[in-house]
Amino acid sequence: MDWLSALRIGLKGLAVHKVRAALSMLGIIFGVASVVAVIAVSQGAQTEMLKQLAALGANNVIVKGIDWRGKTPEERRLKKAARLNSDGLTVREAEVLAASSPLIDRFAPLRRVVATVRHGEAAVQAEVVGTTPDFLEVMNFKLRLGRWLNPGDEVEARRVCVIEEALQFENFAEADTPIGRTLVIDYEPYLVVGVLQGKEETDEKFDVAQVRQLNRRVYVPLSAALRRTTQAPLDDEITEVIYHCRSLTEVSAAKVLIDRFYETAHGMSGRPHEDRDFQVVVAQELLKQVEQAQQIFNIVMLCSAGISLVVGGIGIMNIMLANVSERRREVGIRRAVGATKADILKQFLFESLIICLVGGIMGCLVGIGFAYLVHQLTGWQVTLALWGMFVAVGVSLLDGVAFGTFPAWKAASLDPIEALRYE
Amino acid sequence: MSGDHAIIEIQDLVKVYTLPGGLEVPALRGVTFTVRRGEFVSIMGQSGSGKSTLLHVVGCLHQPTEGMYRLDGVDVKGLDDEELSRLRNEKIGFVFQKFNLLTQEDIVDNVALPLVYARVGRDERLKLARNALRLVGLGDRLQHKPSELSGGQSQRVAIARALVTEPALLLADEPTGNLDSRTGDEIMGVFQALHRMGRTIVQVTHDREKAEYSQRIVHLKDGLVEREEPIASPRTSEHVALA
After folding, report:
1. d(CA A256, CA A243)
2. CATH 3.40.50.720 corresponds to the domain B6-230
3. Is the ipTM of this complex over 0.85?
4. What's the pLDDT score for residue A294?
């Protein structure tokens, strides 16, 4: 029997019981749909995370100062004791580290300033950050207008600033360029010299980099931030240092190195992490944590999708067994006119495969609908993956083979004479 | 091959069925007979005489337990399922008492069914099926479903199906058992016409009258050939059956 005939015979066989075939298809449809939807949601999350990675800088190792003053008196006492040998994060030690390690090619110190920002009479919702000219390259941020901070600004502690795109839109008229305007930071006027391109905002669910906050920054020279703004008592020199590694593959090595360096420099060797006054963060690691959480989600969802495919397969086996026992006479007739066991096996297996193929294709469509629904209801980003649909339909075909073989084999091994006697 | 070349050669054929309990029931106990090319032979016997079993063995649906069976020169003993299936497909055309048509297929596809397993292309299949239907006088009913046909028409479709592969042997199992006597006579007329065209036909029947349409009757009793009875002047059908 050629394949085209097998297909024709299979379709006709199914057409006899259309409702039955459709019902047995349902299991496959929902199984495939859930696989397609899960992959779409998880791909969407992955796309978001890649954006996060870009926002944090994949090559960066970030050292953050921890507020050693603590919340409770007990905490305060412990942290103060721990800091006997430490001045907190300083630019000097960052310079020493960057100069001594070949893994690090540049770095940018950051100082967050608690300051009021005004544009004319209006208050501006912004975070003031002092940093050095290298910051732009370390973070791989792009300028939209004007220029970035230059070494001259840093040496002379000039009152200049670069603002984020979002701040421009909020505080300046559309036709108005902010370049050359002034913002008042802590009662001193700062000239706006540049505007940074906005970072793509992502959903809060995966927002490890707090992109929203990145989009509200006003950058000033670090020297200006240190000398011209109000200093809180006992403040550390800088709040954060971002080290840029030469190569993506050396990031983990650099992290260990940086961790050791600060441990020694701050006199905290052997102390548990929660007692230290610094924290080393790697963008990749943050993403890994999120990825792990997501992996659990994926496994749970794929398990449930797998279960529904198994259930669908059992449904198909059930229907096919009923079909076979109902059509014993047909098997007898076919055998009498020359069908081999293999022909009969092929015929019934084809029927299962048709159910699975049609169910699989319909499942893809339903899955796309599911993914869209998820997007509408939760606002999560979903990315439809063609490979996911191929995998889902492929798995459903395997399902058809796995659960269709037994009924087909049963049909094939009927004795032709017994089969012909069946009423 | 010569003109009087044997289509069926059976010698000391034994068929023993083993029941689920292990009990062995001999259905045929040493049957010997021959059917030559172009003959029209009837096999008669009471129920339990072994005529159904003989039909199944002759039809290559079951293997003999012992003895020799040669179909159109091919020794059947020891062939596996695939070879037996091919033999049924190429050399035998079955006509059953209950017609055994596939209800979901129209009659052209029913007739073309054996050709599907002979791996004949679809266009060629339909052409041959139409020819066979024309031969049995049903050239105008091609697209009907079996449920729309009368008993006599259904049996003609079954005969067309049996003929479509040009088999060496037409094997009929009580072909008139489900038909009234007039229609039965008509079907016998079809067989006689095919016989005149040179077909080899073997029918199993318990109906003496229908057996008399053939040239020779093989009487079976208790799993043995009791006697062979030539019919000097076979009955002829009152109905001109073939187109």
Report:
1. 13
2. no
3. yes
4. 75
